[in-house]
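Schema walkthrough. Field components (list of strings):
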Amino acid sequence: MGDKFEPKLVGFFCNWCTSSAADLAGTSRMQYPPNIRPIRVMCSGSVDTAYIWRAFLEGADGVIIGGCHPGDCHYVSGNYKARRRIKIFETIMKTLGLDEKRLWLRWISASEGKKFAETMKEFTEHIRKLGPSKIGKNWSV
Amino acid sequence: MGERFQLKIAGDDLNKGIKDFLIQIMDKNKINNVVVPLLIPSKNNVFPTFVRSKELLEDAKPVAPVLPISTATMVSKITKLSPSPEKILVFLKPCELRAVLELTKFKQITLDNLILISYDCMGAYKTEFYEEALSGGKDIDSEYVSKNLLKGEQDENIRDACKLCENFFPTAFADIGIGFIGTDGGVIIESNTEKGEETLSKLGLEKKEVKDRDGKLEKISRKRKEEWEKVRKDIKGETEGIDNLVKYFSKCIDCHNCMSQCPICFCRECFWESPTFEFTPLNFLGWAKKRGAVKLPTDTIFFHLGRLTHMATSCIACGLCSDACPNDIKVYELFHLVADDTQAVFDYKPGRDLEEEVPLVTFKEDELKELG
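Field assembly_structure (string):
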């Protein structure tokens, strides 16, 4: 790969939708960049924001959270709660000048394999344009 | 409700006057318990104390300008597991009152049988400063009462958080409020709730009309808000970006004192104290390999950022985090900055209203559409 910047991306994907969409994309042989490191969680609402900080501090250039479409949460309202948490997280990143554009929240249902592949492509290109994140470079965090 | 009464106090001795008022409330309402700042037996500091003996109440200093800990945390210790079977009067600074409201929302305080009293606070000194004054035999309490409480002057030596406090008066959730500002002379008592009204009705207090109390409170509030905006700008400049953030927290030793003193941080099983942070050698080898080095203790910035995401929406800006820091990091300023912004997103003000839900435990279906 040489000197070309390859973004390191971490994804927290809901078991019931986005993770299944990733499966569907795979079994349908859709192509998307290998930059994403998917982590399957039971619900987007179960992602403690501490783990998003952890991802950034450990060198992730971007973090994406994937959940069920509003109204479709397997646990009724987990995704709505996730949305508030992500909003708070994004606000803090903005206030502290930590490049909030590196955090995405997307709703991708189990049937949307194509949307999953496209979103991963988009996110990879988006972060590639932003360049490497500085957050994970500091060894004194 | 919303009625105002006059409290007659002989001379300038507010501490004695308010103590007598508390005793009057207790006698007339058959209340045997009060939580109030009291001079400790060694006479060199004042702590909130659960008092039952009228004799010991003689040493009460309700408006002592010191905030060694948040009384809200203590009220939680008393009423978390079950409501008190007996009535308790609780005397609080306005910041402590706000914390009591937040902790009630988090089900860490049961308000039943508590009667909350608060007052116009002109700030507290750092505990060390106050303790030194008392040890040196200085009558710091009387000076504070006559200069700061009764004349409304702001003392240079009070805590930074107090200098910037915009909510220094009892909110509508104090059952009973005691006012010194905009009272057209003297001390006034306000009853803000049914509970407060009922408690005061037995005292036979004289009603008093005041002309412009709200306006005067608002004026001080506005001035402090302007002051905060300046500080806010400076802190934002100082903390912009990860490298500046690391510089800002360069003295952090990972002691977690800021968290242990924070009235909002109540989790029994705290994430930051959990086995998540019991590492193996492989963790350190991995980090060192990746970043070249690992500062020890590690995860200090992670701790502060993570704590912000957990509690900033309920931060009441009391400043106890800064007081607790052994290395004088300006924790309060940064947390206040972030709290401001995150609370604004949901138009939420901690301690404003018991009915207002904490942003992180609720949601609206039709909001934040730009995110997903």
